[in-house]
């Protein structure tokens, strides 16, 4: 069977979902009001609250949520076969992610641009808010560490992508000043930047990259550096430090100076990348060689682990943090909630869909696929690399040389991961500041203090010297916990949305149904992982994952019980409290 059929099935369901279901949600459930004064106008400060054109904002939102996760998750989940991954990505996007992303955006807009963590206080109480903020803090900490690892890994394996990625930074700052200080257009300059980036990628693909002998530089002729690193781990160490220095400045600058223009550039890059891959798919028409379901996948059950392996690309709690943390502060008109929130989720679904297709059509035969994806652990190790190779094969279908294609794919992935990292560190700064207010610690509410805490803790976690790669592998080791924590956050956010809709007199079912499914799957998966796989009494104890996982699990249960107690009490007393 040709991979084209998988793409067409996904296209049809995504189109119907946006055309009909998102319209129903926007008009009948949210009842969006174009006359409502959004926080971007009400609290305009030129730093975080900035009214933004919906296309520019969609670019910021889309690229902030579309990092490496919607690629890596599906590239691992095809271990169980392409059918379970495809069904969860397509249906999860339409009925769960679209509602979640647009709903958290709408909720925040109607509540002064506050984050879902802060809204928990208003909806289900002070104690739930504190617990929720701690879950969010752990999640963004993991996002920072994981994405730093992914970027460093791609830089090391694809050094020709480095210059293209970093040349974007000064050009994005120039665009920010051009647009907001001189009232210029953002479209043409961003397209010029893309031409420069891809031109640099082409040149770099044919030029021997500059190499620095870190071992010799730091440790003379020995096999290790002066701090005991081998060449590979030294490279990880250096790249993660560079990335953390960059995100410190990126997350403290006003959004219009770097975040918005860079994300707008990357939104075009993502659209172009998706067009290249899908056009390449239709031209080359590769055969699906991976099995529909994998009968040999017996070491890890797909039910319920599939639903935490694919988070971004189906539904992701991190999207709610972006929607309520940065996007809601830039929304120009409330009617843009549907375009920015729901269509942003559809865009991420398209990225996850092509990730699945690129992997399952890459291998020459089913036996080749099964030989590579011979265990769930192996799938985690090879997934991203297989996607890069598979996507490069699709890109050659539109005439891109085989030498250049891997560099361009790496540039696209790194660019998205970097924008997510930017937004995540900024979100972590917000959360640390909120906790500082809550616990009366005024020093950590200051922007640079909170950012320093975020950056240092993220770097420390990413640099945990475990695993085969030494320094830089700590973030990667947290990936299993990222999936469960992320999905719990999405479920709790949907639960908050359901309460919010009930208090506004709207039906809570569009949020409640996916919430129940997601919470059951995620709590079940998390219980298996935390108390069976990682526990002190397990054969492969992992104290780091067990400790973090147990905390998040208990906190999530506490929040869910509190929320349903609130719903039950209000239903019993027939009490409706309009929060917006």
UniProtKB/TrEMBL annotation:
It comes from the Bacteria. Residues 3-362, 383-525 form the CstA N-terminal domain. It is found in: Cell membrane. It is a multi-pass membrane protein. Belongs to the peptide transporter carbon starvation (CstA) (TC 2.A.114) family. Keywords: Cell membrane, Membrane, Transmembrane, Transmembrane helix. This is Carbon starvation protein A. Pfam families: CstA (PF02554). The chain crosses the membrane at residues 6-21, 62-82, 88-109, 130-155, 161-180, 187-207, 227-249, 270-290, 302-322, 342-363, 398-421, 477-500, 512-531, 543-567.
């Amino acid at each position: 069977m040709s991979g084209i059929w998988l793409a067409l099935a996904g296209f049809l369901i995504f189109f119907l979902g946006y055309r009909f279901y998102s319209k129903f949600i926007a008009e009948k459930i949210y009842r969006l009001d174009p006359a409502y004064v959004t926080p971007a106008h009400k609290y305009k400060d030129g730093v975080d609250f900035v009214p933004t054109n919906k296309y520019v904002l969609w670019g910021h939102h889309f690229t902030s949520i579309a990092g490496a996760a919607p690629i890596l998750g599906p590239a691992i989940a095809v271990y169980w076969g392409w059918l379970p991954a495809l069904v969860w990505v397509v249906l999860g996007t339409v009925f769960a992610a679209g509602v979640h992303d647009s709903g958290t955006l709408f909720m925040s807009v109607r509540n002064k641009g506050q984050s879902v963590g802060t809204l928990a206080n208003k909806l289900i109480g002070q104690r739930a808010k504190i617990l929720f903020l701690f879950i969010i803090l752990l999640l963004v900490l993991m996002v920072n560490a994981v994405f730093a690892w992914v970027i460093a890994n791609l830089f090391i394996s694809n050094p020709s992508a480095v210059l293209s990625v970093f040349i974007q930074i000064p050009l994005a700052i120039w665009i920010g000043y051009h647009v907001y200080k001189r009232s210029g257009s953002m479209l043409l300059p961003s397209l010029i930047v893309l031409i420069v980036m891809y031109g640099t990628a082409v040149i770099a693909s044919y030029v021997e990259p500059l190499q620095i002998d870190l071992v010799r530089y730091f440790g003379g002729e020995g096999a290790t550096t002066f701090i005991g690193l081998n060449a590979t781990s030294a490279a990880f160490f250096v790249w993660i430090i560079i990335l953390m220095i960059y995100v410190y400045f990126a997350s403290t600058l006003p959004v219009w100076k770097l975040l918005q223009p860079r994300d707008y550039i990357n939104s075009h890059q993502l659209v172009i990348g998706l067009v290249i891959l899908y056009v390449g798919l239709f031209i080359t028409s590769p055969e699906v060689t991976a099995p529909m379901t994998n009968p040999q996948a017996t070491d890890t059950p797909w039910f319920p682990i599939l639903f935490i392996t694919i988070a971004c690309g189906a539904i992701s709690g991190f999207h709610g943090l972006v929607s309520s943390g940065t996007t809601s502060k830039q929304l120009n008109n409330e009617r843009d909630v549907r375009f920015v929130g729901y269509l942003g989720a559809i865009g991420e679904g398209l990225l996850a869909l092509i990730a699945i297709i690129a992997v399952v059509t890459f291998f020459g035969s089913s036996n080749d696929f099964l030989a590579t994806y011979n265990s769930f652990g192996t799938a985690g190790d090879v997934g991203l690399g297989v996607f890069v190779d598979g996507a490069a094969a699709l890109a050659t279908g539109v005439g891109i040389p085989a030498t250049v294609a891997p560099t361009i794919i790496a540039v696209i992935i790194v660019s998205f991961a970097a924008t997510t990292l930017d937004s995540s560190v900024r979100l972590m700064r917000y959360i640390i500041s909120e906790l500082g207010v809550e616990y009366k610690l005024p020093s950590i509410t200051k922007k640079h203090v909170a950012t320093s805490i975020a950056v240092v803790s993220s770097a420390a976690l990413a640099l945990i010297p475990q695993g085969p790669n030494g320094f830089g592998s700590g973030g990667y080791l947290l990936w299993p916990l990222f999936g469960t924590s992320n999905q719990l956050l999405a479920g709790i956010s949907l639960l908050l949305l359901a309460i919010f809709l009930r208090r506004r007199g709207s039906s809570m079912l569009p949020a409640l149904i996916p919430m129940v499914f997601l919470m059951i799957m995620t709590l079940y998966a998390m219980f298996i992982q935390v108390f069976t796989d990682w526990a002190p009494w397990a054969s492969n104890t992992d104290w780091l994952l067990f400790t973090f996982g147990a905390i998040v699990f208990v906190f999530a249960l506490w929040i869910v019980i509190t929320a349903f107690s609130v719903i039950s009490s209000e239903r019993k007393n027939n009490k409706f409290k309009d929060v917006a």
